[in-house]
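STRUCTURE:
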């Protein structure tokens, strides 16, 4: 593991509550393994995983957005739990992470059309990490992750759509676009 990853792991340990830190380590493990499986930059996957939730404990995400100069997209204004992806990306930018890792952090909660392989890796790793509370579809998503990354991402998005419909909540437009794109390519069929 390189010096940057060691530094980021120490930052995560210092900034995150124990349960969130454990989740971060699980996400790191899965992201690194998936990066090796799909021929991606392991250091970028590791660093993105270590910082994907780094700002999540902050109670006032709107204040953090203002501090980082983030102009809030319309949808996110009404869904504060999505803001940590924006603030974590800004935090990671300040740590010098490359654009691929920044994009993975930015889209790890919603996905988007045109996701890179690294973005899909973090999106999936965040869902399947070993300390994740069980949910319907998790065993299948874990199985798919190592044989069909697009299928695993599509399954995660379908589960999110189902969860939002059941709770009568709006779904982020980027999630719908990502699912539509993956469905058009036959992912997970």
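SEQUENCE:
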């Amino acid at each position: 593991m390189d010096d940057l990853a060691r530094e980021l792991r120490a930052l995560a340990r210092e900034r995150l509550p124990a349960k969130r830190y454990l989740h971060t380590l699980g996400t790191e493990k899965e992201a690194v393994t998936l990066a090796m499986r799909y021929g991606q930059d392991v250091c970028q996957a590791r660093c993105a995983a270590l910082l994907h939730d780094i700002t999540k404990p902050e109670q006032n995400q709107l204040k953090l957005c203002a501090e980082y100069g983030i102009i809030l997209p319309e949808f996110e204004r009404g869904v504060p739990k999505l803001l940590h992806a924006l603030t974590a990306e800004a935090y990671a930018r300040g740590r010098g992470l490359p654009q691929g890792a920044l994009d993975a952090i930015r889209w790890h909660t919603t996905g988007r059309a045109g996701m890179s392989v690294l973005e899909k890796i973090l999106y999936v790793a965040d869902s399947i990490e070993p300390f994740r509370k069980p949910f319907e579809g998790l065993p299948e998503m874990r199985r798919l992750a190592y044989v069909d990354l697009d299928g695993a991402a599509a399954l995660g998005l379908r589960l999110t759509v189902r969860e939002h419909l059941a709770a009568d909540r709006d779904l982020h437009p980027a999630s719908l676009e990502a699912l539509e794109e993956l469905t058009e390519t036959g992912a997970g069929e």
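REMARK: The mean pLDDT is 94.
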